[in-house]
Amino acid sequence: MTEPTRPLGADLARMAVFAALIVVLGMVVVPLPGGVPITAQTLGVMLAGLVLGARRAPLAVLIVLALAAIGLPVLAGGRGGLGVFAGPTAGYMLGWVVGVVVIGLIAGRGRLTWWRAGLATLVGGIGVVYLFGVPAQALVTGVPLGPTALSALVFLPGDLLKAAVATVLAVALQRAYPRAFDRPGVVARAA
Amino acid sequence: MISLYRPGTGILHRMPAGAKLLLLALSALGLSLLPLDVNGTIGALVVVSALYPVAGLSWRALGEAWWRLRWLMLVLGGALWLLVSPTEAVVNTGRVVALLLLAELVTRTTRTGELLEVLRRILAPLRRVGVDPDSIALALSLTITMIPVISGFAAQVRDAQRARGVRLGPRAALPLMVLTMRHADDVGDALVARGIGR
Amino acid sequence: MDVDGRSILRDVTLTLCAPRCAVIGANGSGKSTFARLLNGLRTPSGGRLRVLGRDPQGGASGPRVGFVFTNPEAQILMPTPLEDVELSLRHLPRGERRERAREVLAAHGLAGLEDVPASTLSGGQRQLLAIASVLATAPDLVVADEPTTLLDLRNARRVGDLLLGLDVPLILLTHDLELAARCDEAVLFEDGTVRAVGGAATVIDEYRRSCA
Amino acid sequence: MDVDGRSILRDVTLTLCAPRCAVIGANGSGKSTFARLLNGLRTPSGGRLRVLGRDPQGGASGPRVGFVFTNPEAQILMPTPLEDVELSLRHLPRGERRERAREVLAAHGLAGLEDVPASTLSGGQRQLLAIASVLATAPDLVVADEPTTLLDLRNARRVGDLLLGLDVPLILLTHDLELAARCDEAVLFEDGTVRAVGGAATVIDEYRRSCA
Ligand SMILES: Nc1ncnc2c1ncn2[C@@H]1O[C@H](COP(=O)(O)OP(=O)(O)OP(=O)(O)O)[C@@H](O)[C@H]1O
Ligand SMILES: Nc1ncnc2c1ncn2[C@@H]1O[C@H](COP(=O)(O)OP(=O)(O)OP(=O)(O)O)[C@@H](O)[C@H]1O
Ligand SMILES: O=C(O)CCCC[C@@H]1SC[C@@H]2NC(=O)N[C@@H]21
Ligand SMILES: [Mg+2]
Ligand SMILES: [Mg+2]
């Protein structure tokens, strides 16, 4: 069996590299007037959940958020700085952290099937993210919940597409580079 | 990776990063707790804006900061104006804008390295519950290093498609993911080879 | 040719007509940038560039330039070798494609590996697959950027023989001077400009002298 | 040594004691896997392995093996050269670290580049930085996996001289037989097992013959 004997290094590297991938995907962005952009970062977030699993994926997302907090332009469209955590997107970002845990849990440990991956991205990558994002957006902006929720519908087509892409990709990645799904490492071993 | 930091020698540049973050947190608290009226809100915005030239930042930087918030002001202010009342619109939008301007001021006058150091100190107590703040600082630096590498992979995959005259669309993410994950494995080995993660 | 405001290649005036031309020079001298101009991956900021008499930016009317990169990893776009070659054969009707892709793989010594994950191929096998996929597009000209680094003696020879034996013109960027010597003509880049061009042996000698 | 159920190295019985030892062999013959055993990156599935008389899996009591990879990209772990070398010096007190890291960079010809983004270094500079960072850990043994393949003539010579001139033992995996010839001893791998071991010149000859 593959037995990388220093799992913490491998864990650290995967989380850092995935965080970087999420940042790079943030260069694909459609700004919207409401202050919350449509962004390919959510694709990265969904993939993180599917590939890294419930324990490492939230850490990868937290790395991105911490980098944003210390002022690096790592969020969609090169935004960053402490301000974003007081802005209308703050809830969505919190939703990412919880969402990837849910994705990882639904996707499970065994062989990834397309229906499992699909369900995981729909529930964790869309449902959970909106669950945190929409109320927080309403709170920050002071616009009532109803209209805010309605306005969030513009994200739905894009997010459904991203969920489909993430599902297909994760299943294909399993064929192209099966080792990507190995879950060695201290974080996983603590389970 | 270009940081949002702008070099300078003004008073805010010289102030310790930790103090700035503390002041920012206090201001945020103050802005949300104080019962502001329209005049108070305008006053707060004037004070915060005046801090930009005081910090030695250009008027242009101030203008840019405001300009970036234009959509927020328009949509948020507009919605509140229509749905609630003009006073609420000015006060609530003003609060958010003042806070965002302050946060940007901190970001623009503090080096990434200093903020990393503050983060490490804030997280130090977590050592007792088994979280190692040095590992966190390491993970952040490692990610900063990887960002240009991964965007280089994205460029390589783009070139490879053009060289074969194909357009994969979203499917192009697959080779990107393979490159990325393989790179992660190499970096993991390199970390261990340097005695990290033992 | 400027990138990010830096001038990377300048004053390159060059007419290459030998069937096999080597491009040599130090790290960062501009070889890869030059190669990317040839197949339209980069746009020249000035001057005139014609490849086989046509404009590489010309899209469908431009020349078909096949590009073999150093890193085969970035070039394998599909999960398995068979799918990767099929991607290059999209102009064929579906039924024929698979058949033809199998033939291409076999011709490059990759029979039996059609359906394994591409990431489990060895370094040499991956480079062969990358070349197979490029040649399957039936290019008018092949540009190869250090295709033999990372390969062992036998694979390097195999890949070298394969490329040098093509019946389309070849432009070969390499640090391997023995391989370069097997070309007809050579160009020596230095600091983003052409330092020498001419018969391969002469130019390689000049490069060796400049490094001594 | 098995990976994913495949047996990659078997029947390797080997005692290396020359100060500079080359490891050669075809792509996929097991060189890199062997090297990873030496510094404990992989665990042998059977047999006994001692490096400088100690167990590479031994953690703090094990030997300190410095590892130079082919691709410097994966090895530069911090955003700037200075921070990267400092990472290797974590055992030093904070104040000393910076000072010492500057010295290390200067000793490897990288003075003046302390604070530039590592991504803007040239290929040769990157490999030098990778080596500097490894040597800064004060290893007892250095293992280098094809450290010169991506380099031009001058940089390859520079890196080769640097590694061969170290005063700690060196194990050098390479396809560059001229470089291998400069070692004292050589091992030839074939299909996951040792085919020959002995004086560098003899073993290299054997390899050349086997490829002919
Ligand atoms: N996208 C880019 N942005 C900025 N600089 C670049 C970019 N691409 C290349 N360069 C710079 O252009 C110069 C020439 O690079 P190029 O890759 O063409 O060199 P090369 O001759 O192929 O080197 P090597 O032998 O190391 O492959 C280098 O100084 C490099 O740093
Ligand atoms: N993680 C892995 N999973 C499955 N197979 C592997 C893995 N790592 C290596 N192998 C296989 O083990 C064999 C030996 O690989 P290794 O990388 O040691 O060869 P090498 O001699 O270094 O080759 P090269 O000269 O191409 O670097 C190859 O057949 C390779 O495909
Ligand atoms: O960059 C940020 O500040 C966070 C952006 C959050 C965007 C949200 S996530 C769910 C929804 N889908 C999108 O494409 N955008 C929003
Ligand atoms: Mg090049
Ligand atoms: Mg190897």
Question: How do the helices and strands line up, and which of them pair or pack?
Answer:
The complex is a heterotetramer, with one copy of chain A (191 residues), one copy of chain B (198 residues) and two copies of chain C (212 residues).
Chain A: H1 7-25, E1 29-30, E2 38-39, H2 41-69, H3 90-107, H4 114-141, H5 145-151, H6 155-176, H7 186-189
Antiparallel strand pairs in A: 1-2
Chain B: H1 11-14, H2 17-33, H3 38-54, H4 59-68, H5 70-83, H6 86-109, H7 112-123, H8 133-164, H9 173-193
Chain C: E1 2-3, E2 6-7, E3 20-25, H1 31-38, E4 65-68, H2 81-88, H3 94-107, H4 123-135, E5 141-145, H5 153-164, E6 170-173, H6 177-181, E7 185-190, E8 193-199, H7 200-211
Parallel strand pairs in C: 3-6, 3-7, 4-5, 5-6
Antiparallel strand pairs in C: 1-2, 7-8
Give a verbal description of the structure:
The complex is a heterotetramer, with one copy of chain A (191 residues), one copy of chain B (198 residues) and two copies of chain C (212 residues). With 191 residues, chain A is mainly alpha-helical. Chain A has one domain (8-181): Arp2/3 complex 21 kDa subunit ARPC3 (Orthogonal Bundle), CATH 1.10.1760. In chain A, 66% of the residues lie in helices and 2% in strands. In chain A, a hairpin with a 7-residue loop joins strand 1 (29-30) and strand 2 (38-39). In chain A, helix 2 (41-69) crosses helix 6. Chain B starts with 10 loop residues before the first helix and ends in a 5-residue tail after the last helix. With 198 residues, chain B is mainly α. Chain B has helices at 11-14, 17-33, 38-54, 59-68, 70-83, 86-109, 112-123, 133-164, 173-193. In chain B, helix 3 (38-54) packs parallel to helix 6 (86-109) and helix 5 (70-83) runs antiparallel to helix 6 (86-109). The relative contact order of chain B is 0.10. The mean pLDDT of chain B is 83. Chain C is of the alpha/beta class. In chain C, a hairpin with a 2-residue loop joins strand 7 and strand 8 (193-199). In chain C, helix 2 (81-88) crosses helix 3 and helix 2 (81-88) packs parallel to helix 4 (123-135). Chain C contains seven helices and eight strands, in the order βββαβαααβαβαββα. Chain C is globular. The longest helix of chain C has 14 residues, at 94-107. Chain C has helices spanning 31-38, 81-88, 94-107, 123-135, 153-164, 177-181, 200-211; strands at residues 2-3, 6-7, 20-25, 65-68, 141-145, 170-173, 185-190, 193-199. Chains in contact: A-B, A-C, A-D, B-C, B-D, C-D. Chains A and B meet through helix 1, helix 2 and helix 6 of A and helix 2, helix 5, helix 6, helix 7 and helix 8 of B. One magnesium ion is lined by residues 31-32, 145 of chain D.
